[in-house]
Amino acid sequence: MKTKVRLALYLLPALAAGCQLTPSLVAVPRIGGLSIDGDVNVSSSGASVSSNTDELGLEDDNVVFEPRLDFGWGPAHVMATAYSAEYDGRGAAKGQLDLGGVVISAGEQVESSLDITSANVVTTFDLIPTDVVDLGLGVGARVIDFDGQIRSLSSGQSIGSSQTFVMPVVAVRGAAALGPFDLSLIGSGLTGSYANIDATVVDLDLMGEYRFDEFLGFHGSLVLGYRYIGVDVEFADQGGNIDANLDFSGPYVGLALGI
């Protein structure tokens, strides 16, 4: 027994060195465009025709700030991301919209707006940690806050809803390194009921990096990537039912600075 204990004590420094337990912190300011697509159904009767975002006049936000913060320590990786986007414009309702006693008839000209803010934090643990390829699984949480309004241009009446909800997510992280180039994919999401909201959220973040030695005292890289976020929510509000199935997607560029 004493021999085994001594052997373990001798091996501990080598194992710690092999795990590379030096922590790292990388800030990744990114800007990009998140195009919106999907359908919205608002009804008090339970039966109506959905209107898509193009018909409602929800135009894309030109520039979206999407900061990301990565913290790594051995096989553990913590990643936090956030974004806030605004969409608005004029269009026409394809189907009748009915909420809280306010009715907007099919074909009526409307002015629409949607403000959405979301933050996501996940922690993954590498199952396959190598110098070239990493693959890990983990869990996290996402908070989504949105405020949507649709106003009739003829009557001036409007319907809208504002909600904030938090949901747990499962996450997977894959990464590969080849010379000065890094490629990573982080996927997270889950489906379920949270605070009387039925929700399904999927977030896929594909990011490529070109590393350089040092910039203003920081290790860094140039960043180019693509992000897809799918949000499907259904909930009751003001005596009616709101069902929104929305996709947000687009490329981004940025700069990663780490210590």
Explain what this protein looks like in three dimensions.
The structure is a single chain. The chain has a single domain (2-258), classed as Lipocalin, CATH 2.40.128. The chain has two helices and 15 strands. It has helices at 2-19, 53-56; strands at residues 24-28, 30-43, 51-52, 61-65, 68-73, 76-92, 97-99, 102-104, 109-129, 133-152, 158-178, 181-194, 197-215, 218-237, 240-258. The strands form two sheets. It has a ten-stranded antiparallel barrel with strand order 1-5-6-9-10-11-12-13-14-15. The chain has a two-stranded antiparallel ribbon with strand order 7-8. The longest helix is centred in the first third of the chain and has 18 residues, at 2-19.
Chain-averaged pLDDT:
87
Low-pLDDT stretches? 1-19
How many structural domains does the protein architecture include? Answer: 1
Beta-strand content bin: over 45%
Helix and strand element order:
HEEEHEEEEEEEEEEEE
Query: Going across the major beta sheet, what is the strand order?
Result: 1-5-6-9-10-11-12-13-14-15
From the coordinates shown, what is the CATH architecture?
A: Beta Barrel
Oligomer: single chain
- Name the CATH homologous superfamily: OMPT-like
Q: Helix/strand-derived class? A: mainly beta
> Please, how many helices?
2
Radius of gyration using CA atoms only: 23 Å
Q: How many beta-strand elements? A: 15
Helix fraction by DSSP (H/I, runs of at least 4):
under 10%
Q: How can the largest sheet be summarized?
A: 10 strands, antiparallel, barrel
CATH topology, by name, is Lipocalin
According to CATH, what is the class? Mainly Beta
What's the end-to-end separation, in Å?
42 Å
